[in-house]
Amino acid sequence: MSNSISSYSLHHLLGIPLDTPLDIDEMCRRLKPVIYPAPELSPRLVRFCQVLAAEMLALGITVLAHEDASRNDGRFAPGTVIFAPGYFPDNLLAINRVTTLYNNIIVGIYDEPAPLTADSLPQQRLDAIVGRLARDMVHILIFVTDQTWTICTMNGGVVTFNTPMPSREDVRNTLVPKLTAQVVPPRAEELDIKHGMLQTGTPEFEAVAKDFLQCSALWSSNACLLTHTSTEGLEYRSGFYKRIVARYLDQRSGMSYGFFASQLPVAVQPAIISDESGSMLDHEEQKQGRVSIRVQGRTMLVPVPQVRVITTRSGCRKNHLEAKNDLVEIGLVQRMGRGRAYLKTPTGCSPDTVAKPSFDTLTILAHALGNALAASILMTIRPKAEFPFHLARFGASMTHWHDYPQNELLPEGYHLHGEQNPPVACSTPQSAAYSLLGKIAALENALEQGTAYRGDVHVEPCHGTNIVGMLSLAETAGLMNPAHSPELIPDEQ
């Protein structure tokens, strides 16, 4: 992907670490794996790990020796990816040897078929994967048979390769990206929590809530909208490991996947075309509340506004929303050239409701910010474009679910991107970066084709789809679920 926005700007706009690798070659260079086997391994797992280590070495990835991957206290060094083949007793689990819950990715490798069938519904598949992750205290599952090997990830993603041993191409293009960044919930220090500050009785909120409820009803019969896996129903080795899972999930009662979001109206200023470019320009413009973006070979100095989004809280049932309990506001405020996120929970929210930010908070904010930046650029290049005026009056909608729509269902004026991106896990810095960079690429595509820009469709390989743009949530839901929509709502507001 051509980076129209510098790593420096991504860092200051969204808090994405400067050293976040966005291409596979850099991911390979950063990877620090170690193989930590169970006391007994089957011949198949021994051979699989040997081939895996050899293919990683061919990619320039060195599998670390135990002494190089461990600290003096015997714990794995932060950043180490731990391959854990075989079946472990409790006292030898790799999770017991990490420094914190968020410093290492653990990959369980098993000599057995994946606990899925071709007939498994998406929710059944997700429940089976999450249940095994909690049981074995790992983040990624690999299942090996005499004909296939399968990767299962925390977001319900399943990739099966029809070979008994890993090929170099599959390790590079699929496995390595999944090992690059860990899926973690937003941490308290990363955003300002404002309990009870979202006013739910306002006309603005009521209008947005109505759209969410219509959207939820239209998605209610779609099996691909993964709704909820309760942490209470999982099998744990002991109460100790149950508490670890609760801590890892920031005390959430369960996991839901996908999100609905409504960006609130934001008026933007036209971008300025500049003859300059380079890192020094990024630094200076950041201080002025602008970001340097390359579009069609030109440098655009784009004002960075505050963005606000109403979205579904983590863990709620997306197909059965309760507006005053299940919606929260997130936003991004620019302070001294840096973006700072916040979360507002609803006023009068039920005491039994735990209003947590979505794992996808950074990705949602990246989409919202990208919409504003795209609108600013359009105001300069195409002064009569509809998108900036629509964003200022109505905002924009965002729908994310773990499936891929047929091309004929995609809304007119929405531009597709992301199909060739590395298949990173959701809720990672890479996912947010690809959302923002891909949106600018989609805008460039519309400009080059001379077509209208009404939004974008961000495909995330081995994960799902984001549809973002001028249609309301209900309109998007109607297009994606035509069998459940008696009639499509007109495009125009």
Task: Supply database-style keywords.
6-stranded mixed beta sheet; 2 domains; single chain; globular; 493 residues; 9-stranded mixed beta sheet; L-fuculose-1-phosphate Aldolase; Rossmann fold; alpha+beta
Characterise the protein shown here:
The chain has 493 residues and is an alpha+beta fold. The chain folds into 2 domains: 21-178, Rossmann fold (3-Layer(aba) Sandwich); 188-484, L-fuculose-1-phosphate Aldolase (3-Layer(aba) Sandwich), CATH 3.40.225. The protein has 14 helices and 20 strands. The protein has helices at 7-14, 24-30, 43-58, 66-69, 122-136, 168-178, 203-219, 239-248, 279-287, 323-326, 361-381, 386-393, 429-449, 473-480, and strands spanning 33-35, 81-85, 105-110, 140-144, 149-153, 158-161, 191-198, 229-230, 254-255, 259-263, 272-274, 290-295, 298-303, 307-312, 327-335, 338-346, 396-401, 414-417, 455-460, 464-469. The strands form 4 sheets. It has a 9-stranded mixed sheet with strand order 7-16-15-14-10-17-20-19-18, sandwiched between helices. A 6-stranded mixed sheet has the order 1-2-3-4-5-6, sandwiched between helices. A 3-stranded antiparallel sheet has the order 11-13-12, with helices on both faces. Helix 7 (203-219) runs parallel beside helix 14, helix 11 crosses helix 12 (386-393) and helix 11 packs parallel to helix 13 (429-449).
